[in-house]
Give the backbone structure.
Amino acid sequence: MSVFVYKQHNTLTTSAGTASFTVLIQQSILENILIKSATGSTTFDVKIVDADDFEILHYYDFTGLLNLEIHQLIDGNFTVTIENASADEAFSYKLKFYEGAT
């Protein structure tokens, strides 16, 4: 079976140390997540929850860049939240999914 690789990227800005975005993906593997703050010294946490607010992943105390290969099955809406950012600034993100994998 062929595998389709889907990438999503964008920029968002924290307010009061928090920002989030929601993605709808059907039966895919979230392979990689990269979140980078505009300033290399900014610390932040990252949380991923599903549509029922069930916590899928939670990462703490990153400085400047989070770049993880995670291999997490995702099905439906999920929300990625940047929390406790030490500065309100722009964050860029990239997500890589594999769809159709068996």
Observations:
- The two ends are 8 Å apart (CA to CA).
- Residues 31 and 71 are 4 Å apart (CA to CA).
- The mean pLDDT is 91.
